[in-house]
């Protein structure tokens, strides 16, 4: 299957440097401390954050004394893929994704602010159409910002792949992923340009690495702008309603 | 036949009330540079960039507060951060040697030392060995208490005390949990509302609504818990209505204090208590409440 | 702007999946026309003309752009390739459908599009926000595509009208060409200008011959029988169901060369081929098609036919009558010889291509319908329509097949182009090359641009990167007249008593860098093709005969493989270098042999050659002990007249010691390199294997040997070699050679493969009896060697790898192409030899000694060693004639007898050779029996006949010029 036509269009009509449509919303759950819902193309992800709170149960021993204990859980809904598939919680793939998720987020969270506390991050993939990990990282970042957890900056992830051995494509969908090319997933802190996690699904020749990596990092920067815009909008809306926490002497919101 | 209300997700009611009067103050998001002035100090919600020590960056999303050289960024929503003198409502999680652990919706559980409570039999009794064994008789796991923050430990956890008759174990009533940022800091957190119920507005976001006892307030404190007393239907209804009003106000992100709750109660009288749970009604009540607050302010 | 495409698909297990895909609609897709004022086109995107010639067509006499429907592209690609049609818009819908349905047509379409003179523009209508069309519920996919095409056409009309004056004759309109009547009707109803291809082509004013090229896919087929002649083909769904249920089998249909009513189908999982016979059994399958086959019950199984049956020369019309003959044969076959038989019930995929051949003009002078006879015997005749029959009847033409309806005895096709006069050597060469799919066009300018610029000098930098071996006494030994010298050798004694032997191969990979046009062209050609009088080079001559060729006394780049070898030919160590060499002498086999034999010569070259020779003998002996096979095939060489380039004489190739010497070291080099690259790149090394033939392949050999009283043991290569060595008949020295020739025919093809695709046990080379082998020593004429050079260079760090080199799958598909091209080159070479043999015999009648190779029911296959050719000596006369002499065929004994005379395999006979030119396309060598004499059958010997004839065959025998020679070492 041709990933890139001669006219420079991909299978779904995007150009190689264009991202999929991203829609997101913060504060979708009232019970959780922070929550966010993110759609990247047809990939839909829900993230919730609880904490920081007192570690309960077995985690009591795990909480380090100088850092927060970050507990990530990644899971995919049974109905998230084309065929309905029973996924036992805690299976290999979920665990691996959880570990990767944790790695990316811990790079962004200011863990020294909450020693001996526990931070729970739960991510559920409702519909998987490629770029699941990236959408999860982005959604988790938004949920963390919603919860007011101190972070150095956003943790943003993006994927890129190679078409015809020459052109790098950003934000690969499931169809493009399964067409056999290798995919590079990168989680970065966009403002400082640091890379938190980098993963490749297959090997390709080292000559191609620079351009694919560059494309992915560009994609991260673009996504960062979109997420930042969404956060600002949300903060403005909620802040405005409560008057920015400032009240006059009569106790009325200003 | 009960009415079951089913609603499509796309037809969700938007609880936010639009103002449009004043422009927003400047917002900062994590990773954004606030200033590169060397002489500022970083407060909550900010940090100094590792590479360039002059640059101050925000670490949460919110508005900036400036007190002389100290710059803080206050997030819209976060866990309760205790300060000395705050009134909190909490639940006992553990009974340990010489102290109780109280869960107060903050980063770490708070601590209630046995030396900080009023034991039956008046004050200034020596803390004998029997007292420790009898701790469980006074406060068990799962009990709700109201207390005041005495001090803050170095790791951020709070030390509480109930050395006043108005604090102590809570008996019959309803607990409501709201985001801590919606609770206004005031002198008094114990209110007897005109509507006929009483309310404790904990700074940590936990609100306790209980029927106004006919006796004076001193009966609230201490460790007596009168669970046999039957609260009559009217009181229950009033308390239920209050609860729903508070939830309505919280959903629309209005600040909670005695006046706003009082007005909300009055506005809600046009609806039945059950109706107050529907989103449209909640928005309506909140809108009216704000309107009244606004009009009183203008007066 | 975003929509979603939702469709349902069924998985293999039978679950229904709902697939949802995003489909982005863009607003930055331009129309490609130079006269458009609204689109922001860049210069290179303005494909369609501003000024369109207006009176190209008589019916559509206004300037217009054409929009094509899918069926037009698929079926009328030949018409499209003509230069007459310009300013054509190809919609993305059409392009994708064509790609999906037929890749050859797709490739040809892309070639047309890439030619800027044709002005074909691809419009991406599926992603354009105004022309995207969503499937309505209940609409079929085809209808939806048709609607999309119509929407796009009308969009173009409105889009362009904004930029143009309204006047009719200046206004560029849109014309939709479609062969689908429904679509045409709907388009006209919507106000579009639409036409069928036939009408349009007919109305073109200066292309009368274009009508001939129209394919008859949906056209009315005049004539044909009233009743269907063939059974119905099953629909694709029925075939799928049948395959899944196990009732039907899928395989490739291979037509029999001898019997046009017989063929076999190669089904995976079946050891033997399944036989199909008769018109109904073959059911319109053409050689190479993938067919669906139904096995007949065992009671209906038949034996493969022993007769040689050809389709009649004249046009029999649309009737089938050969069945009768076949029926008689069926009854006689004994049960044990019967083979699994089946019948073709459907065609899964056609493998039609363009065929060369000649026209068989019809009896009726005015008729337009003629029969075309392909050069390839396995392809049936094709019925075409042409108005140029008079002009074409003496020419070789190319024809493509369109369809084979049930009512027609022959498939229907259309004329593509003419090649030249029949029998003309150049035309015949061209036919040969086309039929064997050999790319033989001139190297394009783009390819030549990657050659190094002359004068070429070796710089200091080059010397620094390579090992300097200019001081060694290196020499090359090659056939006479060889200009592309691939390899050179040297040998010298070391102080410790061992020898240092080096094999130096031309460093082609230095000049051909991966990925550029030169590399791609070489990869496509895969090998140099050696015809008798021509050589089709794989790489341009500058490289093959000059810069890469290791000519004498010139400094050249080489890739050296240097061993330290004991006097007993045991390898102590092996080294590989990129080097610079200066060959001291470029010798022929004869010259080298002379130098070795001449005891007075003791210079370095002679000593080097003697050392190599003695080591080679030991190596050969060792190889034979290990079980290497020594086989034979009749190798001959033509001496060609320098002026007319006609063959004068046929000479057998002689094998000297020096042939064997060079061969041994080339084998050793190949083995050493194979081991090294496999060690470094176990996943993607390009190796060569020769699989062991299945025991059944050897049956004819064993049978023939047994009949002569020899036992042939075929359990392993070694045992076969030993059996062959023992099968000697002192009174008939050629007998052993013939046995070896038969053995060669039992062998499988040696093929290239990528090491990651097979298990290590399968790497073995049966013929050479070594566990691992590759091709390293001839990069000038084989592409596989260039790949091996690149891998080896990466091993020693002299060059870097590139992505495709390490990709196992890319290597695998490259091997596929290399194997195909190699096979085709071999066939082409043989066909060229055949052609020249026929040319040679055009004016000659000669008696020659021959041996019977196979005994058939109605003929003997006779091998004539002098010319290395095989001919058929018919024992029964052709159809329609009465036999004067009736031979008795004994199948058990494999013999034919008449009276006291008996013909068996390996029996010597004398035959008269002449050329039967009655069939212009297939000139046949006619063999008539001379000895043993049989009255009323055999002919008198030529000697007797010569006296009676005028001798007028004296020609000027100029000095025979040397043809570019074929490598004597066979491709192992």
UniProtKB/TrEMBL annotation, chain A:
Q: Name one Pfam family in it.
A: RNase_PH_C
Predominant location of this chain?
cytoplasm
Say yes or no: keyword Cytoplasm present: yes
> Which InterPro entries does the UniProt record give?
ExoRNase_PH_dom1 (IPR001247), ExoRNase_PH_dom2 (IPR015847), ExoRNase_PH_dom2_sf (IPR036345), PNPase/RNase_PH_dom_sf (IPR027408), Ribosomal_Su5_D2-typ_SF (IPR020568), RNase_PH (IPR050080)
GO terms assigned for molecular function: RNA binding
Indicate the segments forming the Exoribonuclease phosphorolytic domain, all copies.
18-149, 154-218
Key words, A-Z = Cytoplasm, Exosome
Which domain of life does the UniProt lineage start with?
Answer: Eukaryota
- Where in the cell is the protein located? Cytoplasm; Nucleus, Nucleolus
Q: Which GO terms describe its cellular component?
A: cytoplasmic exosome (RNase complex); nuclear exosome (RNase complex); nucleolus
Q: Name one GO biological process term.
A: poly(A)-dependent snoRNA 3'-end processing
Question: Is Cytoplasm among this UniProt entry's keywords?
Answer: yes
Instruction: Provide the transmembrane region boundaries.
Output: none
The protein's role, per its UniProt record: Non-catalytic component of the RNA exosome complex which has 3'->5' exoribonuclease activity and participates in a multitude of cellular RNA processing and degradation events.
Subunit note: Component of the RNA exosome complex.
Q: Which family does it belong to?
A: Belongs to the RNase PH family.
Q: What is this protein called?
A: Putative exosome complex component RRP41
UniProtKB/TrEMBL annotation, chain B:
Mind telling me which GO cellular component terms the entry cites? cytoplasmic exosome (RNase complex); nuclear exosome (RNase complex)
Output the CDD domains linked to this UniProt entry: KH-I_Rrp4_eukar, S1_Rrp4
Q: Name one molecular function that GO assigns to this entry.
A: RNA binding
Q: Provide the S1 motif domain boundaries.
A: 85-163
Any matching Pfam family: KH_6
Alphabetized UniProt keyword annotations: Exosome, Nucleus, RNA-binding, rRNA processing
Which domain of life, per UniProt?
Eukaryota
Mind telling me which Gene3D superfamilies this protein's record contains? 2.40.50.100, Nucleic acid-binding proteins
Q: What is its main location?
A: nucleus
Localization per Swiss-Prot or TrEMBL: Nucleus
GO biological process entries: CUT catabolic process; exonucleolytic trimming to generate mature 3'-end of 5.8S rRNA from tricistronic rRNA transcript (SSU-rRNA, 5.8S rRNA, LSU-rRNA); nuclear polyadenylation-dependent rRNA catabolic process; poly(A)-dependent snoRNA 3'-end processing; regulation of gene expression; TRAMP-dependent tRNA surveillance pathway; U4 snRNA 3'-end processing
Q: Is Nucleus a UniProt keyword of this protein?
A: yes
Which SUPFAM superfamilies does the UniProt record give?
Eukaryotic type KH-domain (KH-domain type I) (SSF54791), Nucleic acid-binding proteins (SSF50249), Ribosomal L27 protein-like (SSF110324)
**Family according to the record:** Belongs to the RRP4 family.
Query: What's this protein's name?
Result: Exosome complex component RRP4
Species of provenance: Thrips palmi
Tell me the classification of the organism that encodes this protein: Eukaryota, Metazoa, Ecdysozoa, Arthropoda, Hexapoda
UniProtKB/TrEMBL annotation, chain C:
**Protein name, entry field:** Protein DIS3 homolog
Q: Which GO terms describe its biological process?
A: CUT catabolic process; nuclear mRNA surveillance of mRNA 3'-end processing; rRNA catabolic process; rRNA processing
A GO CC annotation given for this chain: nucleolus
UniProt subcellular location: Cytoplasm; Nucleus, Nucleolus
Cofactor(s) for this UniProt protein: Mg(2+)
Q: Which InterPro entries match?
A: Dis3_CSD2, NA-bd_OB-fold, PIN-like_dom_sf, PIN_dom, RNase_II/R, RNase_II/R_CS, RNR_Ribonuclease, Rrp44_CSD1
The family classification in the record reads: Belongs to the RNR ribonuclease family.
Chaperone recorded as keyword: no
In this chain the RNB domain maps to 466-798
The UniProt record lists the PIN domain at: 64-185
């Amino acid at each position: 299957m041709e990933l890139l036509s001669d006219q420079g269009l991909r299978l779904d009509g995007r150009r190689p440097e264009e991202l999929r449509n991203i829609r997101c919303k913060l504060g979708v759950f009232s019970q959780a401390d922070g929550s966010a819902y993110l759609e990247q193309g047809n990939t839909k992800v829900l993230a919730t954050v609880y904490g920081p709170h007192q570690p309960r149960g077995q985690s009591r021993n795990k909480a380090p004394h100088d850092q927060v204990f970050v507990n990530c859980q990644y899971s995919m809904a049974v109905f998230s893929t084309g065929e309905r598939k029973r996924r036992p919680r805690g299976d290999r793939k979920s665990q691996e994704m959880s570990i990767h998720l944790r790695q990316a987020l811990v790079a962004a969270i200011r863990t020294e602010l909450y020693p001996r506390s526990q931070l729970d991050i739960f991510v559920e993939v409702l519909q998987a159409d490629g770029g699941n990990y990236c959408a999860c990282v982005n959604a988790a970042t938004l949920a963390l910002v919603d919860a007011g957890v101190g972070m150095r900056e956003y943790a943003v992830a993006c994927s890129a792949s190679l078409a015809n051995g020459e052109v790098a494509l950003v934000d690969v969908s499931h169809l493009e992923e399964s067409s056999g090319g290798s995919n590079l997933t990168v989680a970065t802190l966009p403002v400082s340009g640091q890379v938190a996690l980098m993963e490749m699904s297959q090997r390709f020749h080292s000559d191609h690495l620079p351009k694919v990596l560059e494309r992915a990092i560009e994609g991260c920067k673009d996504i960062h702008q979109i997420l930042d815009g969404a956060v600002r909008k949300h903060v403005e809306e909620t802040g405005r309603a409560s008057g920015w926490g400032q009240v006059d002497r009569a106790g009325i919101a200003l | 036949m009960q009415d079951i209300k089913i609603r499509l997700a796309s037809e969700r009611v938007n609880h936010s009330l639009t103002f449009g009067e004043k422009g927003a103050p400047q917002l900062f998001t994590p990773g954004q540079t606030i200033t590169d002035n060397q002489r500022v100090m970083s407060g909550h919600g900010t940090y100094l960039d590792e590479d360039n020590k002059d640059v101050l960056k925000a670490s949460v999303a919110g508005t900036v507060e400036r007190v002389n050289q100290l710059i803080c960024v206050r997030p819209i929503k976060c866990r309760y951060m205790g300060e000395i003198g705050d009134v909190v409502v909490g639940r006992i999680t553990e009974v340990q040697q010489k102290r109780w652990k109280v869960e107060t919706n903050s980063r770490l559980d708070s601590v209630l030392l046995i030396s900080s409570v009023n034991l039956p039999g008046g004050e200034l009794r020596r803390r004998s060995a029997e007292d420790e064994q009898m701790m469980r008789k006074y406060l068990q796991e799962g009990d709700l208490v109201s207390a005041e923050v005495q001090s803050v430990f170095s790791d951020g956890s709070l030390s509480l005390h109930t050395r006043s008759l108005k604090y102590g174990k809570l008996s019959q009533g309803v607990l409501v949990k709201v985001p801590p940022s919606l609770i206004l800091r005031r002198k008094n957190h114990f209110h007897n509302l005109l509507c006929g119920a009483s309310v404790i507005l904990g700074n940590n976001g936990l609100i306790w609504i209980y029927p106004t006892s006919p006796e004076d307030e001193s009966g609230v404190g201490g460790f007596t818990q009168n669970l046999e007393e039957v609260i009559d239907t009217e009181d229950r209804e009033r308390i239920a209505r209050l609860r729903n009003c508070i939830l309505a106000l919280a959903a629309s992100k209005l600040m909670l204090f005695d006046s706003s709750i009082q007005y909300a109660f009055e506005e809600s009288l046009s609806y039945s208590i059950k109706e107050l749970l529907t989103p449209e009604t909640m928005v309506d009540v909140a809108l009216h409440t704000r309107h009244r607050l606004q009009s009183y302010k203008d007066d | 702007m975003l929509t979603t495409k939702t469709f349902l698909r069924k998985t293999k297990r039978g679950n229904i999946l709902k697939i949802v895909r995003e489909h982005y609609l863009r607003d930055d897709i331009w129309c490609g026309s130079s006269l458009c004022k609204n689109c922001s086109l860049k210069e290179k995107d303005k494909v369609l003309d501003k000024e369109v010639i207006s009176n190209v067509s008589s019916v559509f006499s206004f300037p217009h752009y054409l929009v094509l429907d899918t069926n037009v592209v698929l079926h009328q690609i030949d018409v499209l390739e003509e230069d007459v049609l310009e300013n054509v818009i190809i919609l993305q819908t059409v392009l994708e459908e064509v790609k999906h349905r037929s890749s050859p047509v797709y490739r040809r379409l892309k070639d047309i599009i890439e030619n800027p003179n044709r002005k074909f523009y691809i419009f991406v209508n599926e992603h354009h926000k105004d022309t995207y069309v969503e499937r309505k519920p209940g609409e079929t996919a085809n209808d939806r595509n048709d609607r999309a095409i119509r929407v796009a056409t009308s969009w173009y009309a409105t889009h362009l009208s904004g930029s143009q004056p309204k006047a009719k004759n200046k206004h560029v309109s849109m014309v939709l060409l479609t062969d689908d009547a429904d679509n045409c009707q709907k388009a006209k109803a919507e106000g579009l200008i639409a036409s069928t291809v036939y009408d349009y082509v007919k109305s073109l004013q200066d292309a009368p011959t274009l009508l001939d090229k129209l394919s008859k896919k949906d056209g009315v087929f005049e004539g044909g029988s009233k009743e269907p002649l063939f059974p119905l083909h099953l629909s694709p769904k029925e075939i799928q169901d049948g395959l899944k249920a196990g009732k039907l089998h899928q395989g490739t249909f291979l037509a029999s060369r001898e019997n046009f009513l017989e063929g076999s189908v190669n089904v995976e999982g079946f050891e033997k081929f399944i036989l199909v016979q008769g018109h109904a059994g073959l059911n319109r399958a053409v050689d190479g098609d993938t067919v669906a086959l139904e096995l007949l019950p065992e009671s209906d199984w038949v034996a493969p036919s022993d007769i040689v049956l050809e389709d009649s020369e004249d046009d029999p019309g649309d009737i089938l009558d050969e069945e009768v003959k076949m029926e008689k044969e069926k009854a006689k076959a004994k049960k044990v010889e019967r083979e699994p038989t089946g019948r073709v019930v459907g065609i899964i995929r056609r493998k039609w291509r363009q065929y060369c051949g000649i026209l068989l003009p019809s009896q009726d002078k005015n008729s337009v319908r003629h029969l075309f006879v392909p050069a390839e015997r396995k392809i049936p005749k094709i019925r075409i329509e042409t108005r140029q029959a008079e002009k074409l009847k003496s020419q070789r033409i190319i024809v493509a097949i369109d369809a084979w309806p049930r009512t027609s005895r022959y498939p229907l096709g259309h004329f593509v182009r003419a090649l030249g006069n029949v029998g003309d050597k150049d035309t015949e060469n061209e036919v040969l090359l086309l039929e064997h799919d050999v790319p033989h066009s001139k190297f394009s300018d783009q390819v030549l641009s990657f050659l190094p610029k002359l004068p070429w000098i070796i710089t200091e930098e080059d010397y620094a990167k390579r090992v300097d071996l200019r001081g060694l006494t290196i020499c090359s030994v090659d056939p006479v007249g060889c200009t592309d010298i691939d390899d050179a050798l040297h040998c010298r004694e070391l102080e410790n008593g061992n020898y240092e032997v080096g094999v130096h191969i031309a460093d082609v990979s230095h000049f051909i860098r991966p990925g550029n046009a030169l590399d791609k062209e070489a990869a496509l050609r895969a090998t140099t093709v050696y015809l008798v009088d021509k050589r089709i080079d794989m790489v341009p001559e500058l490289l093959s005969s000059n810069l890469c060729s290791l000519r004498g006394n010139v400094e050249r780049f080489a890739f050296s493989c240097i061993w330290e070898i004991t006097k007993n030919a045991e390898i102590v160590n092996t080294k590989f270098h990129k080097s610079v060499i200066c060959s001291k002498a470029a010798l022929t086999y004869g010259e080298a042999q002379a130098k070795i034999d001449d005891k007075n010569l003791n210079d370095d070259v002679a000593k080097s050659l003697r050392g190599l020779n003695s080591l080679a003998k030991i190596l050969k002996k060792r190889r034979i002990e290990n079980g290497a096979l020594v086989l034979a095939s009749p190798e001959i060489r033509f001496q060609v007249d320098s002026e007319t380039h006609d063959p004068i004489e046929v000479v057998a190739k002689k094998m000297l010691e020096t042939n064997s010497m060079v061969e041994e070291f080339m084998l050793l080099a190949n083995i050493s390199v194979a081991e090294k690259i496999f060690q470094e790149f176990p996943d993607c090394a390009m190796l060569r294997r020769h699989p062991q033939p299945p025991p059944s392949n050897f049956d004819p050999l064993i049978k023939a040997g047994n009949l002569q009283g020899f036992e042939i043991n075929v359990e392993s290569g070694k045992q076969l070699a030993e059996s062959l060595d023992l099968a000697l008949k002192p009174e008939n020295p050629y007998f052993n050679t013939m046995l070896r020739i038969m053995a060669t025919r039992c062998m499988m093809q040696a093929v290239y493969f990528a090491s990651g695709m097979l298990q290590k046990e399968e790497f073995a080379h049966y013929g050479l009896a070594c566990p691992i082998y590759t091709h390293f020593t001839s990069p000038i004429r084989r592409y596989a060697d260039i790949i091996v050079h690149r891998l080896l260079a990466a091993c020693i760090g002299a060059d870097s790898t590139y992505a495709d080199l390490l990709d196992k799958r890319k290597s695998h598909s490259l091997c596929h192409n290399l194997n195909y091209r190699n096979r085709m080159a071999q066939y082409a070479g043989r066909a060229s030899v055949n052609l020249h043999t026929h040319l040679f015999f055009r004016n000659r009648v000669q008696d020659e000694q021959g041996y019977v190779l196979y005994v058939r029911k109605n003929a003997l296959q006779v091998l004539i060693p002098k010319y290395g050719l095989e001919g058929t000596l018919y024992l029964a006369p052709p159809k329609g004639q009465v036999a004067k002499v009736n031979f008795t065929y004994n199948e058990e004994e494999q013999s034919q007898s008449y009276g006291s005379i008996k013909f068996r395999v390996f029996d010597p006979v004398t035959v008269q050779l002449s050329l039967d030119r009655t069939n212009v396309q297939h000139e046949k060598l006619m063999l008539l029996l001379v000895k043993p004499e049989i009255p009323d059958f055999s002919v008198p010997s030529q000697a007797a006949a010569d006296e009676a004839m005028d001798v007028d065959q004296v020609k000027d025998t100029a000095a025979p010029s040397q043809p570019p020679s074929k490598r004597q070492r066979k491709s192992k």
